[in-house]
Amino acid sequence: MKPAPFSYSRPTTLDEALASLAADPDAKVLAGGQSLVPLLSMRLAAPSALVDINAVPDLDHVRTDEKGVRVGALARHAAVLADPEARRVQPLVSLALQRVAHPTIRNRGTTVGSLVHADASAEMPVVLVLLGGSITAASVAGTRTIEAADLYVGPLESTLRHDEIATEAFFPALPGDAGVAFDEIARRHGDYALCGVAAVVRADEAGSITSVRAGYLSVSDLPTVVDLSEAFAAGTLDDASLDAAADLALASLDPAADIHATADYRAHLARVLTKRVVRQAHDDCTARREGDA
Amino acid sequence: MSTDAPTQTDPDTGEDLHDVRLHVNGIVHQVRIPGRRLLSDALRHDLGLTGTHVGCEHGVCGACTVLLEGQPVRACLMFAVSAAGQELTTVEGLAAPDGRLGPVQQAFKECHGLQCGFCTPGFLTTITAGLRDNPDPTEDEAREMIGGNLCRCTGYQNIVSAVCRAAEIARLEPSEPLEGEQP
């Protein structure tokens, strides 16, 4: 349970960190390390070099405006969760962050690190995809924006190149006509979820549902978003439309079996959570509309 | 420029070694270690501070929890080089300089909050920081506070009681006597 040897550097500028990455195709970025260090200790990963970005200045911001929430590469989960403006502008980020591991892990782990670790069992990747967010990726060649829809390509695999550092994530603001909810089921408090669902429900001024989208974690190899609007074509939410939504979701999902749960059990959880979370997001949507009125 | 550039090579392994200053419980220690030295191992092996216990060594059990700039973190999920220059508090730093138990330690003793004691250092550091953020927790909040720490002996009931008792003790003795002050 000790990492294999690696060379360690702690650059104090972003340019220097990017140059170190570009120089060694086998180097990895170390930010919070709450996923990377266990992988190193178990020797599931053995990079030749670690580029520790914790001394790089101006990467720990949580900035909000009416467009959304911008989270820097060194902002810890705990700092994002504690930010009242972030909670106001995009409440789904806070709802999901409360379910990321335990407070002690959130004190060190970074939100951007979790996003680019690209674990389909993690909370934040599916939230980024569901909200249509993006990340900013920097390299010696310059910076580019990667849309969430283009970020995840396989288990623990993203389209971030080895020589790039994700310097910022952008979570779009909650539209005024929308409500959100998040829930997951885990064996133990703080564990990876067996299944988790995030939902965004939108409705017009009369309260008629216009759009329902749900994101699924721990169900497939990728964070998966399903458009469930069709089940609510009548504009209302009742037991029948929720059942139809769960059917629609499962038609698009192919829950996998693993050591933690059978495929059938996971499908059952996806069904139950779809109905529960869509109902909560609809309640949230209604409460926000009536709160504004 | 880069900090903590390697200063020497280990003659046996050929690994780069780094000279690192670790600030632990108010004392500065100078160590020469490879980049891969976990903070938990640096505390125990290089500094001899064996109060920090290593259980699962992958962040699940919480036994190795220490305070980094006052915030609880897993010492097994950090490299010691990354902690250079930052203030660390281990379980050895929770008692008063004269050896009197801190409020959380005293509460664990009174409430029988430990049996074998292996997990205890991680609970004590976690609760010390938790009570600073929330000095008067409800029983539910006490459970939430210790949710990231595993104990295989007690069944947690007495640890929850100890959290509430520690809050009570801290309220009765709101401040530590200053050095030289009569208790």
UniProtKB/TrEMBL annotation, chain A:
Entry's transmembrane regions: none
PROSITE patterns: FAD_PCMH (PS51387)
Entry keywords, A to Z: FAD, Flavoprotein, Oxidoreductase
Classification via SMART domains: CO_deh_flav_C
Sequence ranges assigned to domain FAD-binding PCMH-type in this UniProt record: 1-176
InterPro entries to which the protein is assigned, alphabetical: CO_DH_flav_C, CO_DH_flav_C_dom_sf, Diverse_Substr_Oxidored, FAD-bd_PCMH, FAD-bd_PCMH-like_sf, FAD-bd_PCMH_sub1, FAD-bd_PCMH_sub2, Mopterin_DH_FAD-bd
Cross-referenced Pfam families: CO_deh_flav_C, FAD_binding_5
Protein name listed in UniProt: FAD binding domain-containing protein
Source organism of the structure: Nocardioides cremeus
UniProtKB/TrEMBL annotation, chain B:
Keyword annotations from UniProtKB, A to Z: 2Fe-2S, Iron, Iron-sulfur, Metal-binding, Oxidoreductase
SUPFAM superfamilies: 2Fe-2S ferredoxin-like, CO dehydrogenase ISP C-domain like
Domain 2Fe-2S ferredoxin-type: 18-94
Keyword Iron-sulfur: yes
PANTHER family, A to Z: OXIDOREDUCTASE WITH IRON-SULFUR SUBUNIT
Name of this chain's protein: (2Fe-2S)-binding protein
Higher taxonomy: Bacteria, Bacillati, Actinomycetota, Actinomycetes, Propionibacteriales
